[in-house]
Amino acid sequence: MCSRHGRWLLDVGDGHDLEYLDVGGCQELAAAQARWPRVAQRAARAGATPGDVFAVARAVVCGWWQQEAVWQRERIWGQRLERVALDTSRAAEAASQWPTTWWQLVARDAVIFPEVVAVAAALVDPALQLLATDERPLVRRSRHHDRFVTALGDRLDRDWLNEVERPERPSALQAWMRGLARELRSHSLPGSAHSGMWRVQEAQQPAEVGAGLRLLAIASPTTFRQHARSAGWRAELWIPRRMGHGAGLKAVSQERFREGFDHARLYVARHGHLAIPHAGTPQNGFDLGRWLANLRAASAGLPPEYVRALTELDAWWNPPWPISWQRAWHRAHAHTLAHGPVSGGDNLAGLPRWLERWLRRQITEYSQLAAEQQQLLAQLGLTAAEIDRFHAWPARRRSVMHGLEAAHAYAARHGHLAVSQPTTHNGFPLGKWLNQVRHRQRAATQPTRLGRRLTALDAWWNPPWPLDWQRCYWAARFHLHGLPEGVVWWPGRPDEGQTRQWLHEQHASWQHLHDKQRELMRSLAAAT
């Protein structure tokens, strides 16, 4: 963007004749451009590439831009888009004939630029990162699950953000939060090199202008014919001249869809579904996974007959949940067809290890699954009744004594009970058992007898904040004061450098800490 002349330069070859947008009447764009270098410096200090941070922020805001529910409440973007379209049309008379949907593609990046910079600044803010990890803890779901989205909405002055960004709706922002939680789980510095939190999944990448304009022309060929000449639409970039009159675009699109559909039909005949990975290996010279991923990303603009044809092949070709979940379900479904439905009453005995682990994860997250996902699990035999039978399995009722013995031994060896689900001790699944006890303790109105016995071992065995924070606290305490007699470090504990970074983040986000967390931090400072 040239702030001096108020021009937003456009890419060549997108399918229109505009060289730039007139954004001189939008001073907030120039202010955002002036603010970006500071955001880039903060990203670099956090170990992230500024370009990757910008790409994630752009994917997040573009995801909001393309939702109709957002446009019903958003006011700033509409006014800004109207101003840019009006000012640009004065310099390019042909552009005045463009419909609103064309402007929403061509001027999108310019209109949302201030919000993209603001979101990028929020993503590299340690204080907001703490809220994001509190929203997606490793063991349980926080009762303050919307604190991060609320804080981000306050920064952007968008009160509708809580309605759009829900955990059950996949989005670029939810993917970033999951990536941040994975980084903290591995005790690595968030945003470090090769960090997955700064990768935008292909299905969540924004549609580029050229591809979006072509999809609009496919979806509304009549509008295309009416505005092609007057709006400066360079149809010859993708339509053979000999066909002309706009019919070539539709013919070429239909031919390409038929080619992909034929490959999809062969795949369904062989495998029974279309849950293909986005980055799969091309078969017979055709990349069916990428073709389907592109259709899923542009599903809102696909012709109804295309959607109908794909749905007839596979009703869940474009599910509202991750395609990896759908692929795992098909694999489990094939096993149940060959060996019979699964049963929760036998503790999933006799199942392959991969299937048992996947089903146990679905049982743990059953209440958070969509109703359609629960129906698909019922087809495997895993109904709500079977899940109740799984939880009532006798061996789980006899594990209290063994659990207390393992908890006592772990606390004596490592000095705390801030363990998450994967932790085992002497062969006993201590992390999983403590996770279940914490869940029952929170559901109770007062401390249980078992809860009091665990509190005697570790007063913070069941904290109201993520366990990862509590583990970092114990690491900081032991690094500062040394290990108590008889206590040894636990596997995967944070080293001194990670602990210093964690302490710095707590001071930076002091106002967002829980009152009890502040007391624990003060005890560290007082003791030193």
Task: Describe the protein in words.
This protein has 528 residues and is an all-alpha fold. 59% of the residues lie in helices and 1% in strands. The protein has 26 helices and two strands. The chain has helices at 27-45, 50-65, 68-71, 76-91, 100-106, 108-123, 126-135, 147-156, 161-164, 172-185, 209-219, 221-227, 247-271, 288-297, 304-313, 323-339, 353-364, 371-379, 384-391, 394-397, 399-414, 430-443, 449-457, 467-481, 496-508, 515-527, and strands spanning 7-9, 20-22. It has a two-stranded antiparallel ribbon with strand order 1-2. Helix 7 crosses helix 10 (172-185) and helix 13 (247-271) packs parallel to helix 15. The longest helix is centred in the middle third of the chain and has 25 residues, at 247-271. The protein is flat.
Quick structural overview:
The chain has helices at residues 27-45, 50-65, 68-71, 76-91, 100-106, 108-123, 126-135, 147-156, 161-164, 172-185, 209-219, 221-227, 247-271, 288-297, 304-313, 323-339, 353-364, 371-379, 384-391, 394-397, 399-414, 430-443, 449-457, 467-481, 496-508, 515-527, and strands at residues 7-9, 20-22. It has 528 residues and is mostly helical.
